[in-house]
């Protein structure tokens, strides 16, 4: 766990996606150990292991209320991976979560909040083509 400014433990939440858990789940054992110790909340999306593909953006939507609670309380968000498809799909899911959970009138308002988070360095992306 990270230590928040007031000395309280801050939540660590990871949405991890890849094609196959057996081949692509980097640091899987370590991440599961951290989850088992209560130091990490882990949400996985293995897109080629079920008949219906599941991606990180699906897990983001499924966990919208909890994610919103973190974001409205100052959480930092990092998106890493493919810029071509994944980053834009995750961003769209974030817009939907922020709009719905934040009771905003539009996706444009949600995007403005995400852009503000980017300006504050609370939402950062390390993506590549």
Helix vs. strand class = alpha/beta
User: How big a fraction of the residues is strand?
Assistant: 15-25%
Largest beta-sheet characterization: 2 strands, antiparallel
Termini Cα gap? 32 Å
Mean of residue pLDDT values: 92
- The count of helical stretches stands at 6
Report the C-alpha radius of gyration, rounded.
15 Å
- Order of the strands making up the biggest sheet: 1-2
Query: H/E order of the elements?
Result: EEEHHEHHEHHE
Shape: globular
As residue ranges, the low-confidence spans are: 1-5
Question: What is the β-strand count?
Answer: 6
Fraction of helical residues: 40-55%
Architecture overview:
- The longest helix is centred in the last third of the chain and has 16 residues, at 86-101.
- 45% of the residues lie in helices and 22% in strands.
- With 129 residues, it is an alpha/beta fold.
- A two-stranded antiparallel sheet has the order 1-2.
- It is globular.
- It is built from six helices and six strands.
- It has helices at residues 21-24, 28-36, 56-62, 64-72, 86-101, 107-119, and strands at residues 2-3, 9-10, 13-18, 41-46, 77-82, 123-128.
- The termini are far apart.
- A hairpin with a 5-residue loop joins strand 1 (2-3) and strand 2 (9-10).
Features:
129 residues, alpha/beta, two-stranded antiparallel ribbon, two-stranded parallel ribbon, 6 helices, 45% helix, globular
């Amino acid at each position: 766990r990270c230590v928040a400014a007031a000395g309280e433990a801050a939540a660590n939440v990871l949405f991890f996606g890849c094609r196959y858990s057996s081949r692509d789940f980097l640091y899987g054992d370590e991440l599961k150990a951290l989850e088992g110790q209560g130091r990490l909340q882990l949400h996985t999306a293995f897109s080629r292991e079920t008949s219906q593909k599941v991606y990180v953006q699906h897990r983001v939507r499924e966990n919208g209320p909890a994610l919103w609670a973190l974001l409205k309380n100052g959480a930092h968000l990092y998106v890493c991976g493919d810029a071509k498809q994944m980053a834009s799909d995750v961003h769209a899911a974030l817009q939907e979560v922020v709009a719905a959970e934040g009771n905003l009138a539009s996706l444009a308002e949600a995007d403005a909040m995400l852009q503000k988070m980017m300006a504050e360095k609370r939402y950062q992306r390390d993506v590549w083509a």
